[in-house]
Amino acid sequence: MSATPMPVEFRDVFPDAHGAHGYGGALDEEIRSYLRDNLWPSSTQELADYDNFLTYFQKCISDVVSIGFFSSDLFAMATMEQFVIVKARLEANRDRSKLETARALATDFPEKDERQRLRSLELVARIWLTLDIQVMYVARGSNSFVWNTDDSLTTMVKARFTKLKVPTEQLQSAESILLDQTFSAIRMKNICGVKIAWTNNLTDHLSYDLAKDCVYIYPHKVCLLSHLQCCQVFEAEVLKETVRTLDLLFPIDPSTNHFLNQQKQTSLYSFGPHDSDASPPTDLTEFNYWRRKLTILYGVFKRQSTSAYQMWHDRRNPLQWYTFWLAAIIAVLTVVFGIISSYALFKQTSLAQKAYDLSVLQTCNKDHTIYALCPS
After folding, report:
1. What's the average model confidence in pLDDT over 291-308?
2. How many CB atoms lie within 10 A of CB 253?
3. How far apart are CA 347 and CA 160, in angstroms?
4. Backbone angles phi and psi of 138, in degrees to 5
5. Could you report how far apart the first and last alpha carbons of the chain are, in Å?
6. Where would I find the beta strands (DSSP E) of the chain?
7. SS3 state of residue 249
8. H-helix or E-strand spanning residue 171
9. What is the mean pLDDT of residues 192-206?
10. What does the alpha-carbon distance between residue 256 and residue 269 come to, in Å, rounded to a whole number?
11. Whose CA is closest to 59, among 27, 101, 31, 36?
12. Between 316 and 363, where is the model more confident?
């Protein structure tokens, strides 16, 4: 834990949700460093890599401050330093039940009751772990969940991630599980028209909304790597596999880089592939925790393009792409030359009519009429 105290109250840093220090502005350098150094004490990541996470932190705290919940004593904590104290207790007691951890907090918050300490544990866990844990009086998403008082932190987290096991013979016969090496998020966007949205809830990562034709991506790669380095709340395999899904969907190429710059999500590129020596995945069976969601996304990726823009970016079958666009060019040229030929035929017919009229006038010896036809 950082030796520098930070007894700054949340309401002084975040006076309201839209104020000068609200989530629309940036936290000062001292507070940013304090949070990074205390949430992940052994982290080797640059402070700038945490920008998106710290924006999420600001929004969470601002939303609570704006409705007066810290000042009304609904939580045990009210300062940055107390937030870090709750996080430290949470991590130290990760294998004890939430109720036992709340009681352990009594030494740090002797004047606060059990309900206030429980709410503080829930809020800190929600922010630190980027999981949509239900906290009383705090807005929640459609996939939020309750952290039961009898469950420990590690038990609650482990229950969020199911490890799949499928018999080998079934996997070998499932041809659709073999990965097309062009599979990526930006190609899903360009080829299939799928929208990409960002989610701060790790369990919503890779979720596909059919009605909105939208995939939700968890962007806080730095948090995954920091948890991998600094704490044992998540299983290491879950963290590594999640990072691998991000490496799969956002490979290092110009179009992906351009998209991430537009979205201000360049921190996904700050680290490169987590394991640079590992070969890119070739089969979805290499994923044990995210396989079901990846299978759905891969099915979406394999659907046919429906617009000219999507067809132009669809290079999954190079022979088909060249054949289609060659046929399209030939069709366009055919139409163009057809228009040119029709126009030339019209002019030719017009000139032939004039030549016929001239010959008739000459035959009739009407010189004055012929002269009238000549340009002055």
Report:
1. 80
2. 12
3. 76
4. -115, 135
5. 99
6. 195-198, 207-209, 214-217
7. helix
8. helix 168-173
9. 94
10. 10
11. 27
12. 363
pTM > 0.85: no
CB half-sphere exposure, 292, CA atoms < 13 A:
11
Q: What pLDDT is recorded for position 72?
A: 61
Answer whether 291's CB lies under 8 Å from 179's CB: no
Q: Which residues of 193-312 form beta strands (DSSP E)?
A: 195-198, 207-209, 214-217
pLDDT (0 to 100) of residue 289: 94
Q: How confident is the model at residue 12 (pLDDT cuts 50, 70, 90)?
A: low
Positive/negative CA dihedral, 100, 78, 8, 228:
positive
Q: Which tokens in the block code for residue 236?
A: 């290491």
Strands 207-209 and 214-217: antiparallel
DSSP state of 145: B
- Which letter, b or e, does each residue of 21-39 get, where b requires 16 or more Cβ atoms within 10 Å of its Cβ? bbbeeebeeebbbbbbbbb
Distance CA 55, CA 46 (A): 16
CB 238 within 8 A of CB 202: no
Q: What would the pLDDT profile of 222-248 be if each residue is shown by its tens digit?
A: 999 999 988 889 999 999 999 999 999
Tokens representing residue 247 in the block: 């490496």
Tell me the three-class secondary structure of 84-109, residue by residue: HHHHHHHHHCCCCEHHHHHHHHHHCC
Burial track 365-375 (b if 16+ CB lie within 10 A, e otherwise): eeeeeeeeeee
Beta-strand relationship, 195-198 and 214-217: parallel
Cβ atoms within 10 A of the Cβ of 130, count?
Answer: 25
Which residue has 């360049």 as its token pair?
A: 266
34-85 pLDDT, tens digit per residue, is: 999 999 998 888 899 999 999 999 888 888 877 666 556 788 888 889 999 9
Q: Please state the length of the chain.
A: 376
pLDDT mean over 356-361: 67
